[in-house]
Amino acid sequence: MKQNRWIFSIAVLLFFSLPFTAYGEENSDATSGPGVERWKQDEVGWWMPQPNGGYAQNEWKQVEGEWYHFDDRGYMQTGWINDNGARYYLNESGAMVKNTSLTIEGRDYQFSDDGQCLTEVQVFDLPEGVKQPNNIIPEEEKSDIHRQVDAIADDILSRITNAAMSERQKAEAIYAWVRGNFRYAGHSASRDWPSEAYRSLRSHHGDCFSFYSAANALLSRAGIPSIEVIRSTDADHYWNLVRVDGNWYHFDTTPRSVGGYYCLWTDAQMNAFSNRHKGCFHFDASLYPRTP
């Protein structure tokens, strides 16, 4: 009997000396966000392995009351996302913003209890690091000069566009009007595009920034987003990059001595022309969305 007790004691000691992981630790979710429990990180970002051996992918996951979204590669997302027609904002830790108001890039947004953005959002889905359109501005944020520019632009558009025209046709009409009614003379008085648009739409002359600003105002009132493009070699030439029918195109209304009609050109067209004419359209492609 004593021998049996001795054998049992040895077995118990060996059992508790073995490596042991609590079930709760192995199968628990994170307590607050990336960096704890089952969250993993590599050179791309944060991801979450699942008990079945896979990982969270293209789905929402709730962790200790916070919602996180993972992309199609399985990485946690941040910033704006679109899901089933609704817009959500994920903060720097990846947690979904909900039941609050938040200022993002200078604009106030309201979010519901389930995280949906209740404020109208202009969606462009541009890659991180590229420039954003600068001509789609909420009415409450416009200056008095900007509102006067809108009135001038609306009057011009009423004469050169109509509701039956496609987005491309409207863009082409705006290009033709600026080219046909402006002359390259003098200098722009400001680098604030609404102020320069106000001056140039009344005087009908100016430099490349004047042409760019006038086009920006007309494009804005036609509902066509536009991004400011600046020549990278000397920062001394400006033109528009416009989104038409879901794609981005170059839109330079400024005339050149060698001629040319640079309306809705692709990156390839701009680069080919630039290479033949001393880099006149050289731009940093990493700053702008790609064209077709």
Task: List low-confidence stretches.
Answer: 5-31
**What is the CA-CA span between the terminal residues?**
87 Å
Which CATH class of the largest domain applies here? Answer: Alpha Beta
Number of domains: 2
What's the overall average pLDDT, rounded?
A: 85
Number of strands: 14
| Helix proportion | 25-40%
Radius of gyration (CA) equals 29 Å
Q: Please give the order of strands in the largest beta sheet.
A: 11-12-13-14
Structural class: alpha+beta
What is the beta-strand fraction? 15-25%
Q: Predict the CATH topology of the largest domain.
A: C8orf32 fold
The number of distinct helices, counting runs of at least 4 residues, comes to 7
Shape: elongated
CATH architecture of the largest domain: Roll
N-to-C series of helices and strands: HHEEEEEEEEHHEHEHEEEEH
Largest sheet: 4 strands, antiparallel
Protein described:
The chain has 292 residues and is an alpha+beta fold. The protein folds into two domains: 43-119, left handed beta-beta-3-solenoid (Ribbon), CATH 2.10.270.10; 139-276, C8orf32 fold (Roll), CATH 3.10.620. The protein contains seven helices and 14 strands. The strands form six sheets. A four-stranded antiparallel sheet has the order 11-12-13-14, sandwiched between helices. A two-stranded antiparallel ribbon has the order 1-2. Helix 3 (144-160) crosses helix 5, helix 4 (167-181) packs antiparallel against helix 6 and helix 5 packs across helix 6. The termini are far apart. The model is unreliable at 5-31 (pLDDT under 50).
